[in-house]
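Saturday, quiet lab. Running sequence design on the structure tokens for the scaffold JK sent over.
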């Protein structure tokens, strides 16, 4: 078996600063007309959960069409292996070693939620400063205070319009009664999350997105982030979505219907129906863009915030990848990315360019034609979108994650090599070019590579008192989450 040694020579003299930022003039390769940009983010959708990435059971015809007429990225990574820090990474252009939010709410040293800083750079504020209208529809989850703090609500972070869930907890329920419209509470009449009755919030978000598109006057470009909550637990969907998956002889998986997550009883049918409903509504978005004459100047990116959580093997939700949500193995952080842009993107392309959520900021800054982009950890992948072979590559990709008693984990990918550093067990080294399943730990066989990657890990992050590399106090509180986990177990 052959392994890439491309790391071994130049890295011997590598010096990595605590904050690798990129601030560049990217306007030279920008399109002549600023494109509209739509980012659609699924929630806990695995790398293998849709047909363009090998799914055999769940039908996703509209995502198929997007992939056939656009680019399917095969080495695209989320910002984190859980929701909050992943979305923060996308918005700020910073990986979890530098991001202001590096964990889900309460997984900080103080045990209190950490929110986005006031007046910080976000994709929305950057695009707004470049003449864009900006909207967020769906899940926010970056303003976790018990009382609303307007400084970390979407409107204070560069968005002109917001409709959706404010917090993570409320987004666990598809019939939650209280949304936010801009900074005000907005009641969904008749919603009862305990009985899964009322207006299905996913459908409400789709309607909001369609309305936003039809309201555009073509005078200013727009950016819209559609943060769907499908297919995150709870698993529930209107009955009409399930019809195509009933009586197919699938193994049944009966879920808890009365716990924190108010699941529908039969999980496999519900899971498939949820993903297909999202796919259906992505088709509606594309159709509406065409009706409004906006499709040819609109870039759509579809992705997921991290790996899957629900599947136990039937759907093969991670594809050939190891791990899932809350892992730093590939199944926890490698996610789909489909880029669709009629007349701009050459059809039916597959790209193995390594990209991550912190690349969206410089990419969009370049597409907006800005000559002054914020400092980020990212590398613009606009050249790949536009068919330019002069695509810059990352020197490395970095993640950290610290939740629960196992303590902090860190991972770095450089070239074909990946190292995972654990708090309480030996480091693991993999060559992803030959071992995408991460089955063969090469740390002992290649100690020189391990040491070089450990140097990168040591210097890749900036210190943050809320996110030390130690077991957090929350994890030591006996059974703090044990009862909750048992209640939510499916």
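Result came back. Writing it out in full:
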């Amino acid at each position: 078996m052959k392994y890439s040694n491309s790391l071994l020579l130049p890295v011997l003299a590598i010096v990595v600063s605590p904050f690798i930022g990129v601030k560049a003039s990217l306007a030279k390769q920008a399109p002549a007309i600023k494109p509209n940009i739509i980012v659609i983010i699924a929630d806990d959708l695995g790398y293998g959960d849709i047909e363009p990435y090998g799914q055999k059971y769940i039908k996703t015809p509209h995502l198929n069409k997007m992939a056939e007429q656009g680019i399917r990225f095969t080495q695209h990574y989320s910002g984190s292996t859980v929701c909050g820090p992943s979305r923060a990474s996308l918005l700020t252009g910073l990986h979890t070693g530098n991001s202001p939010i590096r964990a889900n709410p309460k997984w900080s040293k103080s045990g209190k939620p950490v929110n986005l800083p006031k007046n910080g750079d976000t994709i929305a504020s950057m695009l707004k400063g470049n003449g864009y209208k900006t909207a967020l529809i769906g899940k926010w989850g970056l303003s976790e205070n018990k009382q609303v703090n307007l400084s970390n609500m979407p409107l204070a972070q560069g968005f002109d319009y917001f409709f959706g869930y404010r917090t993570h907890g409320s987004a666990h329920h598809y019939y939650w009664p209280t949304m936010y419209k801009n900074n005000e509470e907005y009641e969904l009449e008749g919603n009862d999350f305990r009985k899964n009755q009322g207006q299905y919030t996913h459908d409400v978000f789709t309607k909001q997105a369609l309305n936003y598109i039809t309201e555009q006057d073509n005078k200013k470009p727009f950016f819209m982030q559609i943060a769907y909550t499908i297919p995150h637990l709870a698993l529930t969907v209107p009955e009409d979505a399930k019809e195509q998956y009933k009586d197919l002889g699938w193994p049944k998986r009966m879920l808890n219907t009365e716990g924190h997550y108010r699941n529908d009883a039969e999980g496999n049918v519900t899971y498939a129906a949820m993903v297909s409903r999202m796919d259906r509504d992505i088709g509606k978005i594309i159709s509406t863009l065409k009706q409004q004459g906006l499709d040819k100047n609109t870039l759509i990116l579809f992705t997921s915030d991290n790996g899957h959580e629900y599947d136990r093997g039937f759907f093969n939700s991670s594809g050939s990848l190891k791990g899932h949500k809350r892992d730093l193995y590939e199944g926890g952080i490698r996610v789909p990315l489909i880029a669709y842009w009629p007349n701009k993107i050459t059809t039916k392309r597959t790209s193995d360019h390594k990209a991550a959520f912190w690349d969206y900021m410089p990419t969009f800054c370049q597409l907006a034609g800005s000559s002054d982009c914020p400092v980020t950890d990212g590398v613009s992948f606009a050249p790949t979108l536009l068919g330019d072979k002069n695509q810059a590559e990352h020197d490395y990709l970095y993640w950290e994650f610290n939740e629960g008693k196992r303590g902090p984990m860190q991972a770095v990918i450089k070239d074909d090599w990946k190292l995972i550093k654990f708090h309480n067990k030996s480091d693991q080294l993999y060559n992803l070019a030959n071992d995408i399943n991460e089955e063969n730990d090469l740390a002992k066989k290649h100690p020189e590579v391990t040491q070089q990657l450990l140097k990168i890990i040591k210097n890749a992050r900036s210190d943050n008192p809320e996110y030390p590399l130690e077991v957090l106090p929350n994890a030591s509180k006996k059974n703090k989450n044990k009862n909750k986990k048992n209640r939510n177990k499916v």
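Notes for JK: The chain has one domain: 20-394. Confidence is low (pLDDT under 50) at residues 1-20, 22-28, 478-490. Ask whether to fix the surface positions before the next round.
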